[in-house]
């Protein structure tokens, strides 16, 4: 973490913050209304505005927003303004399917995204493949957060606590509060975490450019002299990347299972609408702040390697810590925000994986006659098993596996036509949707492993999605689903 | 799906002009029309081309807020 080391007082404060999450989980457990899956995985479909907004926010903005985006901006400069647009595009993605999906989910009592696919297409193969793709993408997402947790803990204790212990400790805290109260625990801890995250970004935007770079104007003026390409408009291929990212995230992140389950969990449609309106403005208060921090780092800490550049936020914080006692405690708050970002994303992903395994795989294939109480119990056991597996992979991942583990959106995005088209095209049959998904996957993976992850600035996953959607369109015209 | 059509009084996806406005705002937000290597004067600390993109994102967010309020109407709310 670039020399950002905390004293005992700060470590105790961070420790208390973490332990308090188990307390929140316990309170959530006392509020449960039944032993049903809807109560455990969707908080009884009772989320109000504050909880729903902050859980959407804390889940959507991960550790990658803080570390990955500052590092990327450090390397490519203002071209990464694309991140503000693509994080906003997720809300446009919702506009394309959420109104209809939410109405259907409230009527049919869906718990998982797989419930919708089963209801719409009546194809166990399509539901199973979609569920496997979603679990794979979410597993990778949670894994990235776990790995970042290890690096964060190792950094603030100056290596006194090894990263692997940090991963194990934080994963245990997460899985305890998650199994105590399910979605209610996760959402309530997200309220704390989302609040801390907003506070952290608020602190960052005030202290980083001003204290370290003399203000944004000064930072940009200096950067214009030091490294002009970082402040200049991109090429046409660079602009294509903006479009590709907007498509990849706008479609992919909108159908993240944990995001879809939050759509299901709102108390009412009115609450959901208000939450999404607030979320539409969040990239300007969150992603933009990460961008400004990355630019400041490019001026204050030039000439870092690529690996070092992913740690620029920590390095900036180390500089702020050295300035004053106030700076020190502000950085402690920022670190709490980092943990909040990592844990809130990981716990939501874990809960979602557990629900999909239990509802879409265990129930139909292993125990079709299982009761709701049994399924909830299996879901809790499943959470511990998933955490154990992910922690083991996070600690022992071989470098050669990294590319495979980085694949998330390229794969997840191939499920998009089932939602975006399936909800509106009655003529789209299960067989066509399945064929489109397989073709899209083949194209996306073929290009990626063939050494061409980007083509003319477009991601391989987006090219795969275009093929996938084209297959669906042709199939819906030539071989429509029968009306029965 | 017929039941759903009764449940959803209005949904954004079916209103064509909403998507035309989105398309125009996206065309403004993506910096394809600036000469490569252009910076321009600073606006609120940002190079002009960045300020225009960020302004377009702000407009997109405001447009989305309007669309959600005006065109996503569920029968549940009307009750």
Description:
- The complex is a heterodimer of chains A (484) and B (79).
- By secondary structure, chain A is mainly α.
- Chain A has 22 helices and two strands.
- In chain A, helix 5 (82-108) packs antiparallel against helix 12.
- The longest helix of chain A has 51 residues, at 163-213.
- Chain A is globular.
- The mean pLDDT of chain A is 88.
- Chain B is mainly alpha-helical and 79 residues long.
- Chain B is built from four helices and four strands, in the order αβαββαβα.
- The interface between A and B is large, with 49 and 42 residues.
Write the layout of secondary structure elements.
The complex is a heterodimer of chains A (484) and B (79).
Chain A: H1 8-30, H2 37-42, H3 49-60, H4 63-76, H5 82-108, H6 113-121, H7 124-156, H8 163-213, H9 216-226, H10 236-252, H11 257-264, H12 269-281, H13 287-300, H14 306-309, H15 312-321, H16 325-365, H17 372-396, H18 402-406, H19 409-412, H20 416-420, H21 430-449, E1 454-455, E2 458-459, H22 460-478
Antiparallel strand pairs in A: 1-2
Helix pairs in contact in A: 1-8, 3-8, 3-12, 3-16, 4-13, 4-16, 5-10, 5-12, 6-7, 7-8, 7-16, 7-17, 8-13, 8-15, 8-16, 8-17, 9-13, 13-15, 15-16, 16-17, 21-22
Chain B: H1 2-7, E1 8-10, H2 16-29, E2 42-43, E3 46-47, H3 48-71, E4 73-74, H4 75-78
Antiparallel strand pairs in B: 1-4, 2-3
Question: Brief overview, please?
Answer:
The complex is a heterodimer of chains A (484) and B (79). With 484 residues, chain A is mainly α.
* Helical content band of chain B: 55-70%
Distance between the terminal alpha carbons of chain B, to the nearest Å? 21 Å
Overall pLDDT of chain A:
88
Number-wise, the strands of chain B total 4
- Care to count the β-strands of chain A? 2
Low-confidence segments of chain B: none
Largest interface: A-B, 49 and 42 residues
Q: Which secondary-structure class do the elements of chain B indicate?
A: mainly alpha
What percent of residues of chain A adopt helix (DSSP H or I)?
over 70%
Biggest pleated-sheet summary of chain A:
2 strands, antiparallel
Largest sheet properties of chain B: 2 strands, antiparallel
- Gyration radius from CA atoms of chain B, angstroms: 18 Å
The pLDDT mean of chain B sits at: 91
| Oligomeric category | heterodimer
């Amino acid at each position: 973490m670039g020399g950002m080391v905390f004293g005992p007082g700060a470590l105790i404060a961070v420790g208390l913050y973490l332990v308090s999450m188990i307390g929140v989980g316990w309170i959530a457990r006392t509020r449960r209304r039944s032993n049903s899956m809807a109560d455990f995985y969707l908080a009884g479909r009772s989320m109000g505005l504050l909880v729903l907004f902050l859980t959407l926010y804390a889940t959507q903005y991960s550790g990658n927003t803080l570390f990955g985006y500052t590092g990327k901006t450090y390397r490519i400069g203002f071209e990464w303004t694309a991140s503000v647009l693509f994080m906003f595009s997720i809300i446009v993605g919702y506009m394309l399917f959420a109104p209809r999906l939410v109405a259907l989910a409230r009527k049919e009592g869906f718990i998982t995204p797989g419930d919708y696919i089963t209801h719409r297409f009546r194809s166990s193969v399509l539901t199973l493949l979609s569920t496997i793709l979603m679990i794979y993408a979410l597993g990778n997402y949670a894994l990235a957060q776990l790995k970042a947790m290890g690096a964060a803990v190792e950094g603030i204790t100056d290596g006194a606590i090894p990263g692997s212990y940090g991963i194990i400790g934080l994963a245990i805290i997460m899985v305890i509060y998650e199994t105590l109260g399910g979605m209610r625990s996760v959402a309530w801890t997200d309220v704390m975490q989302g609040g801390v995250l907003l506070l952290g970004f608020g602190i960052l935007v005030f202290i980083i450019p001003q204290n370290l770079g003399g203000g944004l104007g000064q930072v940009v003026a200096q950067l214009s002299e030091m490294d002009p390409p970082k402040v200049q408009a991109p090429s046409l291929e660079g602009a294509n990347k903006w479009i590709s990212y907007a498509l990849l995230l706008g479609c992919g992140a909108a159908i993240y299972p944990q995001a879809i389950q939050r759509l299901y969990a709102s108390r009412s449609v009115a609450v959901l609408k208000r939450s999404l309106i607030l979320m539409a403005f969040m990239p300007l208060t969150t992603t933009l702040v990460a961008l400004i921090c990355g630019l400041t780092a490019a001026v204050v800490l030039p000439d870092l390697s690529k690996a070092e550049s992913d740690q620029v936020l920590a390095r900036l914080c180390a500089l702020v810590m050295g300035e004053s006692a106030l700076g020190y405690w502000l950085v402690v708050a920022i670190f709490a925000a980092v943990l909040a970002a990592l844990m809130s994303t990981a716990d939501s992903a874990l809960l979602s994986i557990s629900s999909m395994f239990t509802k879409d795989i265990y129930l139909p294939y292993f125990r079709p006659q299982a009761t709701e109480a049994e399924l909830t119990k299996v879901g809790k056991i499943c959470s511990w098993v998933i955490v154990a597996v992910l922690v083991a992979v996070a600690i022992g991942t071989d470098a050669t596996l990294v590319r495979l583990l980085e694949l998330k959106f390229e794969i997840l995005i191939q499920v998009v036509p089932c939602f975006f088209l399936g909800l509106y095209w009655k003529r789209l049959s299960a067989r066509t949707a399945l064929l489109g998904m397989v073709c899209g996957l083949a194209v996306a993976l073929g290009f990626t492993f063939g050494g061409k992850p980007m083509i003319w600035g477009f991601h391989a996953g987006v090219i795969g999605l275009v093929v996938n959607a084209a297959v669906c369109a042709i199939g819906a015209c030539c071989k429509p689903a029968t009306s029965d | 799906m017929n039941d759903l059509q009764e449940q959803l009084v209005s949904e954004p996806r079916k209103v064509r002009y909403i998507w035309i406005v989105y398309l125009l705002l996206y065309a403004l937000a993506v910096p394809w029309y600036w000469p490569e290597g252009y910076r321009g004067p600073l606006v609120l600390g940002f190079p002009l081309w960045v300020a225009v993109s960020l302004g377009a994102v702000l407009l997109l967010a405001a447009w989305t807020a309007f669309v959600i309020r005006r065109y996503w109407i569920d029968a549940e709310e009307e009750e």
